[in-house]
Automatic annotation (TrEMBL):
Cellular component per GO, a single term: membrane
Keywords from the named record: Membrane, Transmembrane, Transmembrane helix
Upper taxonomic lineage: Eukaryota, Metazoa, Chordata, Craniata, Vertebrata
SUPFAM superfamilies associated with the record: MFS general substrate transporter
Pfam families cross-referenced by the UniProt entry: MFS_1
Kinase listed as a keyword: no
Ranges annotated as spanning the membrane: 6-34, 110-128, 134-158, 289-307, 327-350, 371-397, 403-424, 436-455, 467-488
Protein's recorded name: Equilibrative nucleobase transporter 1 isoform 2
Amino acid sequence: MAGQGLYVATLLTGLLECLGFAGVVFGWASLVFVFKAEHYFEELCEPNAGLLGNATELVGRLGWMGDLFSLSDCKAQDEKFSLIFTLASSMNNFMTFPTGYIFDRFKTTVARLIAIFLYTSATLIIAFTSAGSAVLLFLAMPMLTVGGILFLITNLQIGNLFGKHRSTIITLYNGAFDSSSAVFLIIKLLYEQDISLRASFIFLSVCSTWHVARTFLLMPRGHIPYPLPPNYSYGLCSGNGPTKEKKTGELENRELQSQEFLSAQEEIPGPGQQQKPRSFWSHVFSRRFAWHLVWLSVIQLCHYLFIGTLNSLLTNLAGGDRVTVSTYTNAFAITQFFGVLCAPWNGLLMDRLKQKYLKEARKTGSSTSAVALRSAVPSLTLTSLLCLGFAICASVPVLPLQYVTFILQVISRSFLYGGNAAFLTLSFPSEHFGKLFGLVMALSAIVSLFQFPIFTLIKGPLRNDPFYVNVMLVIATLLTFVHPFLVYQECRTQTESPSAVA
């Protein structure tokens, strides 16, 4: 019973950690609002040329300078904020591979201590940054991102403690990662109640003592093995736990890299599977992997571009009305919080379909690998459809419609990452899962770097009119439907001809 209580405590505190710290960088729109109020990069703003000659007259008539700044062209300021988010969000994906290696090689305690160091350093830098030293955000935000990713990676293994509920817990943690973006909304609301930015980030820094305590009391020193051995203990109940962890160490190393989400060997057995093992690179250069990379990269770019430019978009649609921008920014951040509720539905959909198709396969003698893979097709299609709706709504310059955009965006994003991991487990051998997952995330991060030149294009040659960019994004999103179609065709081919190569 003591062990079960420890497992539940680990689960709940891990959920709280992901919800409060892991993915806060995606609340960037709320933080940009505060940074602008604190005049970060405001020295880059150039007053409109038409106003220069009348500046003295305006000040004389109005008696104050506030409106002069609201009438300024702050394209360079927006570009700085967009570049910071581009770097931070790209690091979120690109660093998945090296941080995963650190976790595999040096295990939980070392990985978490590195995460705590990076996270605490980042929050302290932001806390003591001012308008004069705003350039330090280029260092702090990527550090915050990498620290958060390590928190998530070290917590995903907690699903191993709960056997058959493993996938549900992992999906829930990914949803909590998405929902943590609401933390920056809380900071914004506190700022509007005269709680300084410095005080909020110092509080986040102090929370590191809680992370340290959890590392040593509620987490293992090594890895949590899967399947879980009898009487497994760690942390508070370890006793001779290190010995137990050492005994299961070999099993851990074998299981964790290949079974981060689901055991592919358990899920997709069957005579239709190719008997001769294929090399890692043969999977990398396969059509299936290439189209999955396109699917992930395009949808992710749409989301990152939207989040990174939201403040500028709302400012344009609201005609510079600060109160309206604040209201819509709050609404966006609130919808992000519901990612933790949306994420598990995608996993539930795939699990139900997989069980249904596997029962059919047993009756008909079809390839179980093909029918298991077929369960991913509705998830891939639905994610693309949600992103298409989100992209279309975002491209319509009607301010109230953005509420619908916010809802579609959070559902689409919560489906995206869970669907990505689940597809990889169903499509490729388990021994290559860790490497393929890290590689697809790293390559998609390179594509996400295009958000900054796109933003520069909108602000420069397109003169703040994103119409043509939005049209191109909608067309690119339509391209993502090719991926589920090809997967469906492959499944049909394998079902009709079990000897076909996947």
